[in-house]
Give the backbone structure.
Amino acid sequence: MRKLKLKILSVAVVFIFAAFLYMSVDNAQKGSDNEMYEILTDAIARSAVQCYAIEGFYPPDIEYLEENYGLVVNHDKYVISYNVFASNIMPEIEVFNK
């Protein structure tokens, strides 16, 4: 009877540890995703400002930044709303997770 209780306790400890490990990895992944989102948002804005400083106008679209300024966007993971009002006004930039 005592061996059975010990086995049950051991199994419970293993499951608790596995659940804790899963939650830790999941939290780390969410933190990493949030950081990548912030990095992408900042990179788009910096690339647009760099384009304005060099060429005198804000880029017409994200593709222009990708082709001419080395911006890399994971289009499978993010959707980008890039709205240009005028070539001398900073565009509205919004990044969304798919």
Summary: The chain has two helices and two strands. The two ends are 53 Å apart (CA to CA). The chain has a mean pLDDT of 88. The longest strand covers residues 78-83.
